[in-house]
From TrEMBL:
Secretion signal, residue range per the UniProt entry: none
Superkingdom of origin: Bacteria
Pfam family membership, one: Amidohydro_1
An example Gene Ontology molecular-function term: hydrolase activity, acting on carbon-nitrogen (but not peptide) bonds
The name this protein goes by in its record: Amidohydrolase family protein
Length: 497
């Protein structure tokens, strides 16, 4: 029986076998994706039973998406999970003058939480809804610590785990922790300050969180340790994080080789680049997931390759700051596993795939060393490989039913060619029509289960405006907001209101 998508209950698993069909299906064979013309996908109770043509068994319902691509859900391992503050730096430089680093006066006065507990919980929920709207089914959340007292809290991540269960998003998470932070001593001069015991306490709390939360909400929630940045981490914190990840059987994510400030700071502290420092300590392994590698040397990349470290490539946020992974194709040739992340607003993975394709070809000086399919692989198979999940990132019998459906009849994508090339080079998250996570319909026609995104967007903007109003006290010399973030052009208002 053919039924409409609207007949499926949003936020629930349909009972019995469900067959999805469309003009194109991304199947899987011999370790790689395959395109099936007018293919079928059948799932039940969160598991894929069949991918191919002409399913021979009985089904409870059939949903025909027409001119669309049925795809594995996208995997985002640096998934924006707050109200993005990096967008404030797009046209406002230098970062040290724009509240991106704590001035000494703010640090000595005592940093504080700029959001309430309720606001912190809300922004995770809103961000998770944005991920689902963009076809992302698995996420490892990332948020800024610039506006935090120190690290992230257990309470907000307990709320985040519940939000993932209610909205229907697969997550790998725990509160971020750190042993140090950067302090602005004078214009342009930043130094790290450390409180190792605070970092170790944060790790302890994160381990406890993972032990309690892993497997909740039908196994949508699993743990990943998240030390903040390599320049804010001590050797003891890294050693204990690695040991905890081994004991827990989970991964840990560490941002490194991602910026000039970090590279210079780590060289002053340890006499080498961050990957070399960690390699000397025996801390590079396949347990480590490392965004962004935009400042990685050839030696760093060789160490990633030999030790099985996965890179998380976030091309949009990097390119906005004038840096790129050099290069995607070269890293693949070294044998480095590459996953994808968003890390900024909009949380649009398809946009990131396009930026990744373009920046790779610019760096390579050639168009033939990377294809659209290579970026798509990173957002699916690469993410699953980084997580150690053979049942994610592809559509085949026995895999979890994490599925994204992308429309191919959008007028701005006409004419279409190969469906993967079409969505990577001409698509955006706005063409996402439906998302199933573990067989549950989490998003349908721009509606997300258990959250009114239009209403939440109004709340998000009000909350963000409140944060911006606090920037003067944590910016050098305390200038007004109008000087920190001036408008693109002079603003004129009606004198009569």
């Amino acid at each position: 029986m053919t039924v409409s998508l609207q007949s499926l209950a949003l936020g629930e698993r349909p009972s019995g076998r469900t067959l999805l069909t469309a003009s194109w299906v991304v199947g899987h064979k011999d370790g790689s994706h395959r395109l099936l013309k007018n293919g079928d996908v059948v799932f039940e109770n969160g598991e894929i039973l069949f991918v191919g043509h002409g399913f021979p068994g009985e089904v409870a319902r059939r949903v025909d998406f027409g001119n669309a691509l049925i795809s594995p859900g996208l995997i985002d391992l640096d998934a924006l999970s707050d109200l993005d503050t990096t967008i404030l730096g797009i046209d406002n430089h230098p970062g040290w003058a724009k509240g991106r680093v704590w001035p000494r006066s703010y640090f000595e006065a005592g940093p504080y939480e700029m959001y309430s507990g309720e606001e912190l919980a809300f922004q995770k929920r809103f961000a998770f809804g944005q991920l689902l709207l963009n076809g992302i089914t698995t996420a490892a959340p990332i948020a800024s610590l610039f506006y935090r007292e120190w690290g992230e809290t257990v309470a907000e991540f307990e709320a985040a785990a519940d939000a993932a269960g209610e909205l229907g998003l697969r997550v790998y998470l725990s509160p971020a922790f750190r042993s140090g932070g950067m302090v602005l001593e004078e214009p342009g001069r930043m130094v790290p300050v450390f409180d190792e015991e605070r970092g170790l306490q944060g790790l302890k709390e994160a381990v406890s969180f993972i032990e309690r939360q892993t497997g909740r909400h039908g196994d949508l929630v699993r743990g990943m340790l998240a030390p903040d940045r390599v320049e804010t981490s001590t050797l003891a914190l890294m050693q204990r994080t690695d040991a905890a990840a081994r004991d827990l059987g989970c991964k840990f994510r560490l941002h490194m080789a991602q910026g000039t400030m970090e590279v210079d700071t780590v060289r002053k502290l340890h006499g080498s680049t961050a990957p070399v420092w960690l390699a000397r300590a025996g801390l590079l392994s396949d347990r480590l997931i490392a965004p962004h590698a935009t400042n990685a040397t050839q030696e760093d990349l060789a160490l990633y390759a030999v030790n099985g470290v996965s890179i998380v490539h976030c091309p949009l946020v990097s390119a906005r700051s004038g840096s790129t992974l050099s290069s995607f194709s070269a890293c693949r040739q070294l044998g480095i596993n590459i996953a994808m992340g968003t890390d900024t607003a909009p949380a649009d993975m398809l946009m990131n795939l396009l930026v990744g394709l373009i920046t790779c070809r610019i760096n390579d000086g050639a168009p033939d060393r990377v294809r659209s399919a290579d970026l798509f692989d990173a957002a699916t198979l690469g993410g699953a490989r980084a997580l150690g999940r053979s049942d994610l990132g592809h559509l085949s019998k026995g895999a979890r039913a994490d599925i994204a459906v992308f429309d191919l009849d959008d007028t701005v994508m006409a004419p279409s060619v190969d469906p993967i090339t079409t969505i990577v080079t001409g698509g955006s998250g706005k063409i996402t029509r439906a998302v199933f996570v573990d067989g549950r319909l989490s998003m349908r026609e721009r509606q997300v289960a258990n959250i009114d995104m239009a209403r939440a967007r109004i709340q998000a903007q009000a909350q963000f405006d409140g944060l911006i109003a606090k920037y003067p006290e944590r910016s050098w010399a305390n200038p007004p907001v109008s000087e920190i973030f001036p408008p693109s052009y002079p603003v004129e208002v009606n004198a009569n209101g």
